[in-house]
Amino acid sequence: MNTQTTPKQHLPVIIVGGGQAGLSVSYYLQEQEIEHLVLERKTLMHSWQSQRWDSFTLVTPNWQCNLPGHPYDSDEPKGFMRRDDIVAYLKRFADKVKPPVREGVTVNRISIASDGSYEVTTSDGNYSCDQVVIASGGYQAPIIPRMAEKLPDDLFQMHSAQYKNPEQLPDGAVLVVGSGQSGAQIAEDLHLAKRKVILATGDAPRVARQYRGKDVVEWLHDMGYYDISVEQHPLREGVRDNTNHYVTGRDGGREIDLRRFAQEGMELYGLMENYDGENLLFKDNLAANLDHADKVYRNINTRIDTWISEQGIEAPAATEYKADWQPSEERGKLNLADANIGSVLWCIGYRPDFAWLDAPVFNGMGHPQHTRGVSAQTGLYFIGLPWLHTWGSGRFSGVARDAEYIAQQIKSQAAGEEVKSEFASIEI
């Protein structure tokens, strides 16, 4: 993009991160004619190109893509864009926004000056600003546990962020650790490629793809689930720790049923806990993990049934999922050599890494504390985090609402007005 700008010592607003969240804020700041600069460590939208596997698809239908001024613009609203289509959609968004951006600039440190402004130290010089938006995302530092150091040096290991396709991996069985969205989808990708897969499960829930005539996402949308705020949710801020449900948009969308994979030859284990030098050690909770996933699946369907009944909606009859496969025993140990494991894929998520942000806005786990993206530190905002405000915040469906709200907060702060906790002009 030909949107590079020359360095300027002081700006009203700096946005850190050039993904869809950062550019959404830029869109609204431009509407309000507020001068700002986007600093992007690599290139705009780079994570969608570099940190997604070849067969990656959205797990939510295309119609939910609704970035500022850029709703879904192709001919499969009920389909699920693949990685290359997502990248193209986001490029069209960036071309519309035309953000003032400096790409290839790493933010090394942000600190608070004595007058309350922000000092921004980068790989391309120093800046200062009155307000700053952190749009670097919630998936920053890939988690690889310390037990990985115990595994043999010649065993191939990689994080899900690096995975592209089965051809990357050496011969032998593949141990996939983690059954959240990435783990379950990558396990399926390998399984469909006829690779031997050993899956160490966790407590991730699952969800149906289609139920009673519609995609479950459409039912949940109609029921208002994507608009429930953190403050309204029974778990309050604890909902931000929830694991996403596993499902896939692959081949037009379908459920992921680990029990069916087991019937087809995938080996399932409970939570992996350690390695004793010869054996991988697992917690005896495979049955509990599968039952928990199915319980969530059934509960969501039951809520849909209730909604259909209460609203008097005509829909196909309800169906009940029956578990056709049960583990015959809990296997707490697996000999690494006997299992012929040639590679390990760590699919256990990410941890926050805001070490470069020197501001008193973090909890004991290193997560930023905020209300709808607004921190207690005047002029410091976050966007693009899961459950920033609603379930939709971490999706293409909710980022526009979050960005508009933050842009209004920035405008009020710049005008010296009292910053409100809510804006009546934005529907919740």
UniProtKB/TrEMBL annotation:
Its EC number is 1.-.-.-. The keyword Oxidoreductase applies. InterPro entries: Auxin_biosynth/cation_transpt, CHP04046_FMN-dependent, FAD/NAD-bd_sf. The keyword Oxidoreductase applies. One of its GO terms (molecular function) is monooxygenase activity. Keywords: Oxidoreductase. It holds the Pfam family Pyr_redox_3. NCBIfam families: MSMEG_0569_nitr. This is Putative oxidoreductase CzcO. It comes from Zhongshania aliphaticivorans. The lineage of its organism: Bacteria, Pseudomonadati, Pseudomonadota, Gammaproteobacteria, Cellvibrionales. The gene is czcO.
